[in-house]
Amino acid sequence: MLSFENDYCCGAHPAILERLAAANATQFPGYGSDEVCESAKARIREACGAPDADVWFLVGGTQTNQTVIDAVTPAYAGVVAADTGHVNVHEAGAIEATGHKVLTLPHHDGKIDPAELDRYCATFYADGNYEHMVFPGTVYVSHPTEYGTLYTLDELTALREVCDRYGMPLFLDGARLGYGLTAPGTDVTLRDIARLTDVFYIGGTKVGALFGEAVVFTHGNAPRHFLTLIKRHGALLAKGWLLGLQFDTLFDGGLYLDIARHANDAAARIRDVLRERGYTLTMDTPTNQIFITMDNDVAARLQEHVRLGFMEKADDTHTVMRICTSWSTTDEQVDELIALL
Amino acid sequence: MLSFENDYCCGAHPAILERLAAANATQFPGYGSDEVCESAKARIREACGAPDADVWFLVGGTQTNQTVIDAVTPAYAGVVAADTGHVNVHEAGAIEATGHKVLTLPHHDGKIDPAELDRYCATFYADGNYEHMVFPGTVYVSHPTEYGTLYTLDELTALREVCDRYGMPLFLDGARLGYGLTAPGTDVTLRDIARLTDVFYIGGTKVGALFGEAVVFTHGNAPRHFLTLIKRHGALLAKGWLLGLQFDTLFDGGLYLDIARHANDAAARIRDVLRERGYTLTMDTPTNQIFITMDNDVAARLQEHVRLGFMEKADDTHTVMRICTSWSTTDEQVDELIALL
Amino acid sequence: MLSFENDYCCGAHPAILERLAAANATQFPGYGSDEVCESAKARIREACGAPDADVWFLVGGTQTNQTVIDAVTPAYAGVVAADTGHVNVHEAGAIEATGHKVLTLPHHDGKIDPAELDRYCATFYADGNYEHMVFPGTVYVSHPTEYGTLYTLDELTALREVCDRYGMPLFLDGARLGYGLTAPGTDVTLRDIARLTDVFYIGGTKVGALFGEAVVFTHGNAPRHFLTLIKRHGALLAKGWLLGLQFDTLFDGGLYLDIARHANDAAARIRDVLRERGYTLTMDTPTNQIFITMDNDVAARLQEHVRLGFMEKADDTHTVMRICTSWSTTDEQVDELIALL
Amino acid sequence: MLSFENDYCCGAHPAILERLAAANATQFPGYGSDEVCESAKARIREACGAPDADVWFLVGGTQTNQTVIDAVTPAYAGVVAADTGHVNVHEAGAIEATGHKVLTLPHHDGKIDPAELDRYCATFYADGNYEHMVFPGTVYVSHPTEYGTLYTLDELTALREVCDRYGMPLFLDGARLGYGLTAPGTDVTLRDIARLTDVFYIGGTKVGALFGEAVVFTHGNAPRHFLTLIKRHGALLAKGWLLGLQFDTLFDGGLYLDIARHANDAAARIRDVLRERGYTLTMDTPTNQIFITMDNDVAARLQEHVRLGFMEKADDTHTVMRICTSWSTTDEQVDELIALL
């Protein structure tokens, strides 16, 4: 059955599989201490314009959020996130499992507001009992957000300023980073992110890899013995070169962005048709995810022919559904979907 | 300086100190395995009408919340609490330190609403992705709440029903339980609480003891090897008989309730004067805490002569202050405060 | 350079890569809820002769040990392991990170002794202070062990009896299970393991897969909401079908055992030559790992031409080195190594 | 029945109870932010000759070990202790509950050997795989040890040097510190300990207080927001002045040392008689604990008349028993015991 359910339903971009087949019999040292990983790291540092960055490869998104947040957040502090943030809602308590509270701010189309963050911190430190409370520590944002929306350069800059004011690291979850970097109208580049955050990651799983997330500590600021911390979280891959090989391929000649652009274009085509045909877009998103508020009937009928993502009930008669494109979305699949709409 | 800042500023009711002095040279076995503890447990079981209850003594409130919640909540679940709940706001992340998320419901005068809890659970299990989320586990309420308000018997019964529906233990934080049991107009007794909850505690620290909280697993349902779990939390007192001795005194002839009634009466006298003189009570509370929304000027002036509790800024020109009475509040202190108002 | 450093230096058995390439564009549901995973689970249940077994797929060994031990061990208990056990020495504290102590027994060629385990438990419960100590909970063994040695059927049966006596789950780490099952002289089958343990895993990473470990709860005894627990550990792979596909291939027609037998045979050839030429085998092992106690000079000279595993210093002039074979070891590589010895 | 079971069977030195009674109605600010705590801290700083020390008060020993070790040990590291150390054996896994492994060295009469610690660290860092292992972090010693023995000044100095060499904080558990400081023949003073360790604590529970341990960060090196960390462990006492009051009394005019000397003297009298009468002292200890290896029969007979501490079975016919004195041991009790021996 046709599926637009998510961006991780298929395997890897063919270029990755080819390279994997070619390297399959090579004897690599373990745990990422190989030349392919070194090459991938060098390419990423260059793409980021961050020659001092420390780059590490992990397997999945929740694992990466858990490992990084635990490593950079003091024991007396929590992580500040949008109430809709992945770390707050969809990670089965992985952050709390490491002993840290998720402190929430109201989201605005999935984003947190720098002024509200500032006010939150000011109120916290003005409270005479603040030492009995969880300190605002790491600030977590995702770009694109859970709703496919994007921060502007002004917003990221303002968040950076608040983080500096209160001594908080800024951590950007880029599980779908490629789709954000190639979205029409965005003014945020990879270099901006490397300049404005303390740590972020470049998502592979949802952008054309089999799996893998590249964590970038932007200014040589990896936590001490980070390899040991990764291992302690059960997150160190024995055949680490598998991760290096995928990112080395994705960052060789712009493949990462090409993949993302392809998916964004497919989503744009679908979005145009939805608008023409009078569908209600739940929010205006420029990336590879489309959210539609549908009559329950319409949703049910459509899903006889195509798998869509279920987001939430809007009310008793309406549902928010998600259409998601990826590296593997073909023109034919898009045509087929459009015919169904 | 005169103080109505909190209900734990003074030592213990004199009856406790006398008994402590008398027992001081007795050689007790360690860690609560003594006869005084046994006697106190028997008295508490009787007061609760719960002959099968398991009773344990811990030192403080946060410690008790942390130890109990960690012991009764599965790893895949969190604890549901009011957003204003002590475990959510004022325990420095002690719950998350044990790996559990605090899941919040909006408070209504400090309380959670049974219907909202029911809806929360229904929505949770209706979500196709619920296995990726933190399950609602233990339900946490406090009685009196952070705001000195009380659940009705109907409300507690309704909470019990929702807990049964979704297989969740109901845990009642009774750090100030005495003040609730003796509040004018309440229809909730100690026996009701022992019947309707799975586990609760009888607060000593804030009700006339030097320290100590008596945890009651209401129907022989203490977690396996609970003593070991207490020790693992660093919460096992070597001279455990100190805890037994205090509760044995408090539950000998109704002293616990007498202490609470005394403090409630003092608060009622103050509350009447406040109403007469046109002060704005932030909310209507029947226990030993009074919350007043004051002009910042008035608050500042008062605090030159009496220590009050600061709760929060109401707006730019108003502050919520707390007046709190205890076992040690004297008629003279009340008169003095009234003269200042 | 030639390498006999470990059994995870190369990619996957070609049959796996071929199948991956064929399935790459298929749209699978996420997180292991796909048909390939179902097929792999069915094959594993059948191979185990355990129709009621719950099978789950994780990515790596440390992750699997951490997730399983945390899930099956009560908070008041630890995991009992050989002092040389992987969980005790080489997992960067991943077990303790979940709050559990590793309780150690002396190893005998990497194994624990059932009689010593029995005595340990008897002594524990005979101690009047045992409630102040960490209870022996889960019993952890690996098969093959860190030293490539194997339990006999009698030993496993005896361990099972001790576990039953003290109510402890028996967990077998099978990161290299294939090599054990196909070792000459072993009397332990996969069905024995499924019958005698509560939970074990079938290692993929070190036995011909790119990555992946198949956890088998042998009698329908998976912990409640185990998927959520996996996610909470950051261990849930988005493209879970990648794991299912690899195990479905490995358990289709006996490939898993063929791979292991191939590596064992290569190791046997090398071992024979070592013996002929007077090398000192550190211990007698029948699987794919060979441990040699070498003059430091000899070790240094060899390593100019071939990468070996360093195990430990034996004394000031001798070193224990490891030779390790795998699915990818060729006859030519073995010849080349033999020429160097 | 007569008891020499432990040093925490009775209440507090009468001077403490008197002062408590006198202060009982005073209104103190909460959580240790009061003047009595300040006074006690000043006295302790002066006794330590450490004007920059940060002093904190906690309730019990396991709690203190847990809170301090968790605060000063990095996530990638464990705490090194004697295999007989309290943190390794008798704290129900409280250290591991915070995510840290206890790394053990063999004990020598309860002590660790500086040269062995050095070798342990050297071997650790010489291992090519050390990043996959738990780093030696905090070094934990107790003084007196579990067996009542004492470090010499040379030994403590040597431990300090090893700690400096490998960047490890040195933490001294002084649950029975008084008995060590006043032992005949010791060359270690409180000032030495304050100079040579990074953090240590002065035990109150076992040296004449109702409860309480005074943690001394010897050179202004308390972890950031340590009050919040204490609260997060559920270890912050509401009526913190109770702790300050006890230590202020103990450190007013040398009472702390007087109490300890009294108990040591009583133990010395008993020890002399034991030697005269041919009992086998398990080891030679100069403090308030006496360990005797007894015929099981003798042990059983004695215990009909006096409660002793059970330590361990020596062999099938012998048991190690403990005689323990304290502030409350009277001459009459000693005479009575001697009559029984």
How large, in whole angstroms, is the Cα Rg of chain A?
20 Å
* CATH-derived architecture of the largest domain in chain A: 3-Layer(aba) Sandwich
Biggest interface between chains: A-C, 53 and 52 residues
Report how far apart the termini of chain A are: 16 Å
Alpha-beta content class of chain A: alpha/beta
Oligomer: homotetramer
Enumerate the spans of chain A where pLDDT stays under 50 for 5 or more consecutive residues: none
Helical region count of chain A? 13
Shape of chain A: globular
Number of domains of chain A: 2
Strand line-up of the largest beta sheet of chain A: 2-8-7-6-5-3-4
What is the CATH T-level topology of the largest domain in chain A?
Aspartate Aminotransferase, domain 2
Helix content of chain A: 25-40%
Average predicted confidence as pLDDT of chain A: 96
